[in-house]
Q: What sequence folds into this?
DNA sequence: ATAACGAATCTGGTATACCACATGTCCAGA
DNA sequence: TCTGGACATGTGGTATACCAGATTCGTTAT
């Protein structure tokens, strides 16, 4: 028999670790818009030199989490409402394509899986379990993406999802949205079950655009100035 | 009157310049898959030190143009056919959403503009002018994206477009594709003129998915091994 | 008291030296 | 001739020193 040798996992680079730490830090802390960071201070705190830290920061800058202004500073870049809406448009585009593709591959077992995630919720009481529901939400969208079997689609979508991670929590909580979201999810699952690409895509698109509309019209985010 | 003061162009960073140079280099040269690059040599050629060059390289790595293997080297990362097809799926998703949004804003003048770009072409003779047509092609897709007025959509789409810049040339050239593309473009313009979001989106999607199918089935790329 | 100047300082950008690991080469021993 | 291993070399990763623009704040001249 052949020996199954370990695939060898190459040692992580400090830049990679710094990137993850920084990202977690930015997403978990509720800092103010335009909070200023400092290369040297961050490098010290993380115990690395500026070089790997800079790589991490620039990556975060490309992804839009921070803004680097030469000789000024590094600033956390929370997104104004308008940008969040635009990001949701992109999500709508990607995920409705995912739903369309998913119809080609989805199996009855997949459908059952999707349904079970939501069995514990009821439209009339879901508003009281927003935390659990928000999680089920994320999982649902991820599952649909996986069913598309398109790694590029998955890659782009998850990239975008991070960028508005904070948003999800607040939008779900906002009045009435959870009930609608639950019903919409169930109707998307139905469309997938029927393997109807156009219908699935449309429902997914409308679901996310509905969220966008919700954000546009009413949602308040903690990092925006209260009026 | 007010003086039109210079917008102040902040001095370009070497890293930025290096990024552009490198990207052009990679896209313009028909190098072999897995061609090896070298940080120090590149830095010398560009006349900068390794630091800004590394930033450029890592950015290219994030975008998938190159692959960095620690202590091995930097490798040009041409994409296998399957990946190109997947990228086209993402493009289809983004641009069909753009077409949908464009319907909200498009004016008769916009429609005329779009049409003029293609006036010089005829379905029966377009195969003889593939170079010009390819350019008109790019411009068309860009214009539709602009009409969507969604900067995020534009940003993501142009990001993706670069990644398959080479593909366009070869796919257009491949037999029969130009004629179809021209007809499809014209029908997309019609749908936009009618301001029909669903129809516009569908035609744009089918147009790009058709290209994907074309790539999947027949197209050969110079960097793939001939069989 | 106020405004203008300038030095000290802060900050990201850049250059460079050094490190550790991977690979290639060459020689010694079987 | 073939095998191993030591050493030289190549490579990206990291740390650090220095640069120049931007900012801050105190001093000075009016």
A:
């Amino acid at each position: 028999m052949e020996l199954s040798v370990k695939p060898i996992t190459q040692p992580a680079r400090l830049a990679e670790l710094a990137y993850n730490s920084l990202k977690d830090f930015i997403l978990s802390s509720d800092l103010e818009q335009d909070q200023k960071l400092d290369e040297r201070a961050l490098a010290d705190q993380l115990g690395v030199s500026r070089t790997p830290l800079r790589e991490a920061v620039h990556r975060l800058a490309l992804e839009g989490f921070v803004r680097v202004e030469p000789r000024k500073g590094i600033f956390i870049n929370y997104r104004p409402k308008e940008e969040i809406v635009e990001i949701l448009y992109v999500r709508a585009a990607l995920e409705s394509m995912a739903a369309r593709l998913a119809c080609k591959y989805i199996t009855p077992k997949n459908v059952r899986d999707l349904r079970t995630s939501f069995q514990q919720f009821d439209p009339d009481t879901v508003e009281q379990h927003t935390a659990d529901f928000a999680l089920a939400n994320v999982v649902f969208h991820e599952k649909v993406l996986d069913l598309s079997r398109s790694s590029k689609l998955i890659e782009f979508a998850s990239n975008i999802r991070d960028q508005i991670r904070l948003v999800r929590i607040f939008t779900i909580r906002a009045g009435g949205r959870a009930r609608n979201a639950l019903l919409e999810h169930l109707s998307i699952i139905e469309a997938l079950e029927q393997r109807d690409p156009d219908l699935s895509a449309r429902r997914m698109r409308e679901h996310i655009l509905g969220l966008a509309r919700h954000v546009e019209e009413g949602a308040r985010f903690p990092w925006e100035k209260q009026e």
